[in-house]
Amino acid sequence: MKKRLLISLFTILFLLVGCGSAKYANSKYLGTWKATQAEAYGVSISTESLVGEFSMDLKEDGSAKVTIDKDTYKGDWEEIKNGIQLKDSKDTMDFKAKDGHLILEYSGATITFEKQK
After folding, report:
1. Is the residue at 18 inside a domain?
2. What is the 8-class DSSP label of residue 23?
3. Domain range for residue 82?
4. Contact 55/114 with Cβ under 8 angstroms?
5. Residue 5 in domain
6. Cβ distance 84 to 29 under 8 Å?
7. What is the pLDDT of residue 41?
8. In which residue ranges of the chain is pLDDT below 70?
9. Between β-strands 43-45 and 83-87, what pairing exists: parallel, antiparallel or unpaired?
10. DSSP letter at 61?
11. pTM for this structure?
């Protein structure tokens, strides 16, 4: 009897853990986003000249990998009203969704991200 109860409890536990791991399985924000446009103090500039390569990979479990130039950072993301919020141990950045793009306004610069296919 105890063995069946334990098996039942472990089965329920694994089902609950399995359901929780795909927090954003149906999110429109999932996938890789790459910086395609940048503007600083009203002047359009290439994203490479501003920050080098800038991309982010948003996973369905809420984790994120961000590449800036040749450095890679790990963090978490979540859906917020009108976009996403990206967090690491030091910073939090809000990206606004607009016309199928994600827009980051940070330190006087506006960077537009496009979802990669």
Report:
1. no
2. T
3. 26-115
4. no
5. no
6. yes
7. 85
8. 1-21
9. unpaired
10. T
11. 0.77
